[in-house]
Specification:
The complex is a heterodimer of chains A (107) and B (121).
Chain A (H helix, E strand, L loop, with lengths): L3 E4 L2 E4 L5 E7 L7 E6 L6 E5 L3 E2 L7 E6 L2 E6 L8 E7 L11 E5 L1
Parallel strand pairs in A: 2-10
Antiparallel strand pairs in A: 1-3, 3-8, 4-5, 4-9, 5-6, 7-8, 9-10
Chain B lengths: L2 E5 L2 E3 L5 E8 L8 E6 L5 E7 L6 E3 L7 E6 L4 E6 L8 E11 L2 E7 L3 E5 L2
Classes of the chains: A mainly beta (107), B mainly beta (121).
Chain lengths: 107, 121
């Protein structure tokens, strides 16, 4: 099984800050990497698929990069509504594993 | 509006069974693969099972293999998860999620609101 490791597990940043979350796969997954945002008590929302493609309607301050085993989610200028937990997910092979999540708090 | 609505969650004793349903509206279910994902209280997301549009391909997480069965009825526009031999560790909110196939890769673009399954004596 492919293990997905996210870091950090949590972070606190100010509005306007540039925020970076990393995700590492235990083996190469090419570009089969997705990012989701989840707010407390709500279903996750797709942000980025295929490592770097922004899903419809997602603000352009979100971006993704990477390939192989190392990936990054960047929020270019953190906004108050960006609080929540962010998850990476690989869809290279079953089981389709998620990372442990990164909780983003607004200072 | 494209939407998924889960139902069937509830309280069950260890060893018991439950059948979850996921009703799709606003789109034709048979055109999409579907998944179940769960989230234990205060924990992260765990993928549970995948089914292709034609039901020809099915995958399960090792944690549920042999106990859970995914199925779909494309005429009724519905997805199901039959859960048998339930354990306390299966306690979670269960989400159904639509497969979004773009650029040769899958992601999950539409999610239901979730249904809570509690396994306890």
């Amino acid at each position: 099984d492919i293990q997905m490791t996210q870091s950090p597990s949590s972070l606190s940043a100010s509005v306007g800050d540039r925020v970076t979350v990393t995700c590492r796969a235990s083996q190469s997954i090419s570009f089969y990497l997705n990012w989701y945002q989840q707010k407390s008590g709500k279903a996750p929302k797709l942000l980025i698929y295929a490592a770097s493609t922004l899903y419809t309607g997602v603000p352009s301050r979100f971006s993704g990069s990477g390939s192989g085993t190392d990936f990054t989610l960047t929020i270019g200028s953190l906004q108050p509504e960006d609080f929540g937990t962010y998850y990476c997910q690989q869809t290279y092979s079953a089981p389709l594993t998620f990372g442990g999540g990164t909780k983003v708090e607004i200072k | 509006e494209e939407q998924l609505v889960e139902s069937g969650g509830g309280f069950v004793q260890p060893g018991g069974s439950l059948r979850l349903s996921c009703a799709a509206s606003g789109f034709t279910l048979r055109s999409y693969s579907m998944n179940w994902v769960r989230q234990a209280p205060g924990k992260g997301l765990e993928w549970v099972s995948y089914i292709s549009g034609s039901s020809a391909t099915i995958y399960y997480a090792d944690s549920v293999k042999g106990r859970f069965t995914i199925s779909r009825d494309n005429v009724r526009n519905s997805l199901y998860l039959q859960m048998n031999s339930l354990r306390a560790v299966d306690t979670a909110v269960y989400y159904c999620a639509r497969g979004y196939y773009q650029s040769g890769m899958d992601s999950f673009d539409i999610w239901g609101q979730g249904t809570l399954v509690t396994v306890s004596s």
